[in-house]
C-alpha cells in the first residue's frame, strides 16, 4: 500500500488541499490575532451589545453637537405653545398627502370647560419640516458659529416641538438633547475620577501588600459602606448656595467620583496581588524597574479588559445617582439642564396624567443605563468567553 | 457466568451551538456478574458519557440513538431496559444507587461542601435500604470502616474538605457501596490521586468487588491500570470501541494499531531502557470526526483509499476477541 | 466559630470607629459653623446688631471653639456611652428627639424591603436557572435589565399613580391622616403596615432585579457541579435534589451581599421618600441638610452607616454558618 494520491481523482484532491490551505490560513489568522482583535471579533457577534453601542454612540454624538442637533436653545420659549403635546410630522392628512413631512399649525381656542386659552391644531395649516434649517445662531463645539440646525421648520419664524413643550413653553426635544450632554459628561468625568483614584489606591495596595495594603483596605471598606445619597446630601449642604451652576456641576461630579472608586480599586488590588509574584513581574523588579513602571507596563496590561468592563458598568451608577439627586433638587439646579433636572418638572402624579411627554428624558436614562449594562455584559463575554455573565 | 449488563449500539448525540455532535457511536459491550470490564481510551474518547448514559445522567441536550439497547438484569432477576425508562421514573431512581453505584474522578467535587460526608452516606443508605436514621448511621460508620477510614465514628461528621484526597475517595466509595449496588461504575477513580494512594485505592476496590461479588466498569486512560484490575477490556477511540477481549490477551497481543500504540506509550520495566513512543498526532475533535476509520489520521498502517473512506466492521480474530480494523478480514485473519 | 466571630467583631468595631471619624469630618466641612447661623437665626429681624463677640460667645457657649479632636471624642463618647447624639440646633431640641422613632420606621421599611426582595428573587432565580433558556427565563432576564435601568423615583411615581387609581388617594406617606400624629397603638401599626408595602415594593424593585440574576447565575453554576450529578447517581429524587444541593448554595451570594442591599436601600430611601411623601423620613433628612444642622445630618449618616456595617457583620457570620468551608479559610 502506498500513500500516493489515487490516480483518476486529481480534482478531488486539489479541492481538498485548497480547502485545507484555506483552513490553515484562517487558523493562522486566528492564532496570530492580538488579544484586542479577538475581543473585538467576539464582541461584534454579540448583537444586543452592538445595538447598545450604536445607541450610545448616537446619544454621545447628539450631545456633543447639541447646539446643531437641537432646533432651539434650552431657554427659548414659545409662549404660544405652553405645555403643548408632541407634534409628530406626518405625510398625509384629510386634505391629502405630500412628499415632504409636515405638522399642522395651531390656533388658539378656549377650553370649553375651564375657559382657559389653549392651542389646538389647525388642520388647514401645514408647516413643512426640513433639514438644515436656519434658526438661532449658535457655536458648535464652542468654535464653529452657525445658524443652521439639523432639523426644524422651513420657516424660521415658526417652531416645531417634536416632544412637546413644558410649562414655560420650552422645547422638550431641544432640552433633552442638551441634557444628554450634561448627564453623559457627568458620567464620563465621574468614572474618570473614580478610575484614577482606583488605579492609585488599588495599585499601591496591590503592589505594596503588607501593612500598607491592610490600612488601605480598611479605608476602602469605610468608603464602601457609607451610603452615597445620604452622604451626598450632607456634602450638598456644604455647597454654598451662591455657587454657579458650573461649580455645582463640577462639585457633584467630584463627589460622585470621589466615592465611586472602591469596587474598581478592590478589583485592581486583588488582580495585582495575584500576579505580584509571577516570573515576569519579579524579573522586572530585579531588573530595577520603578514600581510605577512595573505596574503600568507589566502588570496592568494583563487585566486591562476586566478594568474596561468594570468601568463600563460603573456608568449606570453615576448616571442614576446624578439623575436621582437632581430630581429631588439636591444636584444640578436650573438653568442647567440634565436628565434629572428635566425630570424635576415631572415630579407629580398630575404630570403623568396631563403632560406625560415631560417623562421623555426618563426614557433616555433607561436607555443609557441599559446600553451601558448590555455593553458591559458583551465586553465581559468577549474578554472572558468562559465566564458566565453574572 | 451470567450477564449483568449488555449494551448494544449505544449512540449518543449532543445538541450544541455549533450543531449536533455524536461523541459516541455504535458502542457495544457487556459486563458479567462479579467481573470487571476495563474501559480504556484517551480523554475525550467518550468513556464518561457512555457510562453516564447507563444511569441516565446525561444532560437534557443529549439524545440516544434509535438502535441503542441497554439491558440490565436487576438484583431481583428482572431485566430493565434502561433506554426506555423515563428520567423521573421510580425504576430509574431505584437503579441509580441501588443497582448501579458510581464513583467519579474528583472526590472533592463529588461531595457537596456544605454537608458532612455522613449526611451524604446516610442519604444514600436511607434511599435504598429500609433503615431508621440511627441504623443508617451505624451502617454508615461500618461502611467507612470497611473502606479503610480509621476513626470512622468521628470522620462521619467531617466535611469533605477536612479529609485528605485518598480518604475522600475512600469515603466516596463508601457512599457508592452503602446502597448495595450490583454494578459499580468507577470513572477514573484514581486519576486525581497520588501514585502511592492510587495503588491503595485500587487494591481496596478490587478487594471490595471480590467480597461483594459486584460487577464493575472501571474507566481509565491508563492501560497499565487495566492490567491490575480488569478481567475484560474495551478500548475506545473517538466514540467507538476499536478492540475488546480478555484483558490479559489484549495486553499481551494487541490487534488494533491504536491499542498497540497505547501499549508502546506505556512505561514498563522492560521498556525503561527504550524511548517511549507516543502515538503521533492529536485526537481529532468530535465535531470533526474523520471519515472511515476514526483512527486513520494517526495510524501508521492505514490503507489509503480504504481506511479513510469506509468504516471498518467489527470482526472476530480469535474466539472471545473483537477488533475494528481493515487489517483483519471477515474471518478475523490479518490481511497484510 | 467563636474565634471567627470575635475576629469579625473586632473588624466591625474598627470599621465603625473609622466611619465615625469620617462622618465627623464631613460634618465639619460646611463653611461657617453653627454659631454663625444660630446668631443669624436668633437675632435676624429683631433689630439687634450682632457683633463678632456675640457670635464668639455663642460659639464658646455651644463648645464649638474647642479643638476638633476633643469635639470628636466628646461627640462619639456621648453616642457610645449615653446614646446621646447631642443637640439639634435647628430644631432647638436634642437630636434623639428629632430622630426618635424614625429609626424604627426606617428599620420597618428596611426589613420589609429585604424580606420582600429575598422572598421574590430566590425562588424566581432558582426557577430561571432550572428552566434555563426557556421563555420564562428569557422574560426574567429582560425584566432584570429593565429593573436595573429604571430609576427608582420614576418607579415610585408610576406606582403612586396606579396606587392612587386603584386604592384611593390616601396611599402616599406612612400613615393615614387620623394616625399621623397619634401615639403608637395597634391600629396605628396596622395603618403603617398598610402604607409600608408601597415604599417596600419600590425599594425592592432594583434589588430583586439584581438578585434574580445573582441567584440564577450561581444556581446555573451549582446545577452543573459534580456533587449534584453524584447525588443524582445515588438516586436522590429530583425535587429534593434541587433544594438540598444547588439551591442551598445558590443563596450564599445573597447572604454575602446583605450589607450591599442595605446600603442601596438606604441610598434610595431619601429619594423615594421624597416622591412618596414619606414626610417622616425624607423631609427630615432634607431639612437637616438644608438647615445645615450637621448634628442631625451626622447622626443620621452615622446610624445608617453603622447599620450597614452591622449587617455586613451579620452576613459574614451567617455565611460562615451556612458554608463550613469559610471558617477554615478565615
Ligand atoms: N454536555 C455535553 N455537551 C456536548 N458535548 C459533550 C458533553 N459532554 C461530553 N461531550 C462530548 O463528548 C466527548 C467525550 O467526553 P467524555 O465522555 O467526557 O470523554 P472521556 O470520559 O473519555 O474523557 C467530549 O469530547 C465532548 O466533546
Ligand atoms: S482501519 Fe486502517 S486506519 Fe484504522 S486502525 Fe485499521 S489500519 Fe489503521
Ligand atoms: Mg472522563
TrEMBL record, chain A:
The keyword Membrane applies. The lineage of its organism: Bacteria, Pseudomonadati, Pseudomonadota, Alphaproteobacteria, Rhodobacterales. It is found in: Cell membrane. InterPro entries: MetI-like, MetI-like_sf, OppC_N. This is ABC transporter permease. Keywords: Membrane, Transmembrane, Transmembrane helix, Transport. Residues 180-376 form the ABC transmembrane type-1 domain. One of its GO terms (cellular component) is plasma membrane. The keyword Transmembrane applies. It is a multi-pass membrane protein. PROSITE patterns: ABC_TM1. The chain crosses the membrane at residues 48-70, 184-210, 246-264, 300-319, 355-375. GO terms for biological process: transmembrane transport. It comes from Meridianimarinicoccus aquatilis. Its main location: membrane.
